[in-house]
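Why does residue order matter? Because the sequence determines the fold. Keep that principle in mind as you read this record.
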Amino acid sequence: SAHQVELLQSGLDRFLVVGDVYRRDEIDRSHYPIFHQMEGVKLFTPAELAPAQGNPDRELQLIQDDLKRGLEGLATHLFGPTEMRWVEEYFPFTEPSMELEIQFQNEWMEVLGCGVVHPEIVANAGRNPNQDKGWAFGLGLERWAMVLFDIPDIRLFWSQDERFSSQFASGQIVSFQPYSKYPPCYKDISFWLPPTQDDNDNDKNDNYQFHVNDLNELVRGVAGDLVEQMELLDEFTHPKTQKVSQCYRIYYRSMDRSLTNAEIDALQEEVRRLAESELNVTLR
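Structure:
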């Protein structure tokens, strides 16, 4: 994170830091554009690395084993025996990098990313990467709370409904009791993607390269917390024109009331209008 180099520069060898994160992200029950993250860093002392006898590969394995053991222990301490798995991943601040996934409501949910601190991070902090080696992790606190309290949808953390907030008290771990039985309403949107950039084309609109996060941000901007999930249903390339078509399904659901078709139709029409005008796609 932005704080890692700063805290390493201050001379700290191990620390936890918590902060707010704002970013464009997928739309589903475990993703939200605002969340709280806890980051942890640990640099090893020469004594802690001594068992590796100066072998870089053995040091790397020692650090990874310590990281996994600690994080698996944290998950087990909080959740009890639970099914978990490690998945290789890429992060710019760690190498190698991995994610920890936990089985939650019959699906695998990523709850943290971590890895061995990249030597450049250590060097940028004015320290010696050949001596200061360690691990770092970042975990989303809302996702851990989802598992701990059995909360099915991350949007609930921003709910003002007392039926949600009244179920919890400081120092008590309870399972969330669902109160919303309102059905979802889904709408599809399909379009041709904008053409790829042509260096000889001076039309700035044609230089835009579509990214699904642009659509995620647009849909959230229109529907706010009424949008529950968005998924890619279909993609194909026209055999003659080589134009690419995509179709997305958008699920709308309120946590505290039933939605009307007229209400959702109005939101969907605004999504369609903005997608064509701002994302340069051609509606189908």
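Residues 78 and 148 are 7 Å apart (CA to CA).
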